[in-house]
Design goal:
The complex is a heterodimer of chains A (300) and B (53). Chain A has 300 residues and is α+β, with helices and mostly antiparallel strands. Helices cover 16% and strands 26% of the residues of chain A. Chain B is mainly α and 53 residues long. The chains are: A alpha+beta (300), B mainly alpha (53).
Chain lengths: 300, 53
Amino acid sequence: MAGLAVSSGPGTPSRFLPQGPATSCVIQGHALGWLNCTCNAFAMATDQGSVNRVRLTGCDFRESTRDVAGGTTLLQNEPLAESRGVKVDVYVGSRVVTPYFGALQLQAGRGIVVQGNTKALLMTNSQSTGGPVNHAVFVSQVKGGTTGHPNQALVYDPAADGRVAGWGKAAQGPQWWSWGRLLNFAAALRPWGDGDPRVLGPGKWYCAIFPDTNPHFHPRYGGTRSIPFPDRTRIDRSTGQWSYKTPAYGVTNRVQPKLEDGDLFVAYQYTIRSGIKWAGNHDGTRWVPASRLSHVGGST
Amino acid sequence: MTDLTPEDLELAEAKRLAAEPPQPIPDATDLPDDVRDGRAEDKGDSPNHYEGD
């Protein structure tokens, strides 16, 4: 069964970050809040992509661009996330990807910042702007449908702050969109700017794809999912040094380093072989007898 | 024994396919790299929106 991935579901940002009001981000006298959709989308994506380790604001991203004129681009926001250890794959221009590719990444557990145009949202329950305008949202996860073709997407739209405006009430906070609505949003993007009538059209996404935060494992030796998942254990202090072995009893994997007392061992799976309970890592290449671990089923 | 569900198998398939590099899109060659967020006046509402764009 090696190679199959078993998951417990993707993570989410620790907080929703609305971009408004304009004064939410003032740099060099410029009130930039309503121009920070990509910045705020990146902040939420980085939060999720780091499993809530890196919590930046949209204004942090804006400041990192050293640009106070108009909106920002995906490429301008990428370096700050990368500098904090969050890998981002940006697809723009001739490197845009298909929605099918984006759907697979989302289904695999990666979050995506997608650029589009809010024309597709006007007069819907996802409307967050007064008029049609280029915009960016963070897509945290998807559900339903089939591989490459989800039914719904959980969208964090930075402009969806619930404000009451002349045109009505904005959507508020994270919202499940139909997959079709997300496709329409992305296809309505005006790559040459709001003032140019040319639209991107279907079949292409300007997007930034963040790390897989969907905990999963590849079962080997009949391993079953740990509880909790994953299970953060420690090498028991009474053990001394311990080489990784495999559930094929007594076979030492000589290329693996020895474990020291107190070392962290993150178990994703357990199996019982020859009466011995074994704890395995994410891909089943490292195994330790559970009797040599402490904090099993608890937290470190 | 493993407890693989249909959802587990779908995830495995998505992860396998997602690991493959994206295919180039032929009619994308002339697209610009730098696409910015749009006009502020079409997003925020007075008195909070930024008029400088």
